[in-house]
Amino acid sequence: MTKEYRTLHTTVNLPYELAFGATLTRFFDGLSAEKILGTRCPKCSRVLVPARSFCPRCFIDLDDWVEVGQTGTVETWSLVSYEYIGMAKTPPYITGLIRLDGADVSFTHLIGGIDMSSIDQVQSRLAIGTRVKAVWATEKPGSIFDIEYFVPI
Amino acid sequence: MSGRVGIVAAAESSPAITQDNMMDAVYKVTKELLNKVGIDRDDVGTIVTAASDVFHSGISCANSYYWEASGGFLKNASRQDGDSLFAFLYGCLRVLSGHFETAMVIALTKGSENPENDTVTSLYADPFYHRPLGINETTAAALQMRQYMERYGITAEQCALVTVKNLRNALFNPYAHIRKSVTVDEVLNSKATADPLTTLQCAPKSDGMVAVLLAAEDTAKALTDHPVWFRGYGSAMDTYTLGDRDLLRGTLPQAAQAAYTMARLEKPSEEVDVAEISEPYGFQELLWCEQLGLCAEGKGGRLIDSGTTHLDGRLPVNPSGGVLATNPYVARGLYRVAEAYWQITGKAGEHQVKKSVHTALAHSTHGFAGQSHTVVILGD
Fold it and tell me: Which segments of the protein form a coiled coil according to its record (chain B) (predicted)?
């Protein structure tokens, strides 16, 4: 709708310095070394990944570190094809929840290495239940993109 | 606790996209509400507003800016960030405490002035893990939708029918933002956003100011012939980390049961006459209906196919057009309350449902894939 009155165009741009904390720092150090690390809860026995400093369900401290598998099963996924200001990644890309082997919760990441030119192309390679494996980036500075994406096996 | 608390009046801004600045828009809805009841600002005991800061208005501590327009200055007044149904509860509790005879609750968002919805919702995601991976309200909903369709055999057409129904209902609601007749094919063939979602299955961003006046029982009866009583409330929030949650077994059943117990509803699917449900993504209306106990698990698709939730159905859902028609982000919960109030008092106008309404449900959701749910039961 055209506005009848004047419009002020403005932005808010603010720098922050956010602490990773000890547990996430160790998790991301693990990615640099091509390891996906979780922590096991001594009470409910669940392996949580990314590693957590506490189990939200049992509400107790966690310090039993375990390396989980680099392969897993897709629990759900979405082909993202729209754009918005400030979006983290240029579309098209596929985001998914992956149950890594040895973990008891799902891991959020990208699924790639397949033709994303159409939803039909994607669906010929990807469905709920598809097995995938991690593809490591060449540069691994200790970020979530140390894993470039998961590719269907 | 001193008796009941009732809604005396409600006001919504119109049209859905306003030319006013925030200050004037807040003033107009506040003044309209006071005029409807025939009282002055000085007569209002306390004021609670709901608004989001920088993200949804570009101004931080925004209540300090619009405080004079809400009439909140020089009063024992407060503000709630996030879901406006929390502000509604806050207002009810202030009256029930016995300290205030009346409370005005105002929710406000000017979506037309903001960046796209997901520019804002991606900032809800933590910057270490979820945000760089593109998780926002829409992509999280898409992940939930694919699981929902797969697990229960819900079809794309059934999901699209929610948009068809709600935008058609909005044709009869002059306060709604998106008002048009669309077909299932048009919904499914609209531009893909995060598959399986398409543009017409995702809520727009709208302007919306809404205000309700609450009063203690005797005062409510003195101010209006048709008070609508606050009968039940429940809310629950799931954990944050997306992969930890079962996206199809969230906290809504828990929130709903708390509200039903408080309202003494034993068979909500029979006792609720009309429901206003927050469905920023079409399929969520079906899933939330299941989790509210308005139909059986996995039967949300069959529910809409049957016509039960249509304007003239046995249990109309979103006669106002819902969030798919009007999405003033923070205010969308209190819009559901205002619409439920109008349905009970018979003042909804052209989108008044055909059946008589004694009990209405208002629902709001916040966060990714329904992390937070709030349920309010109102009755005459």
Answer: none
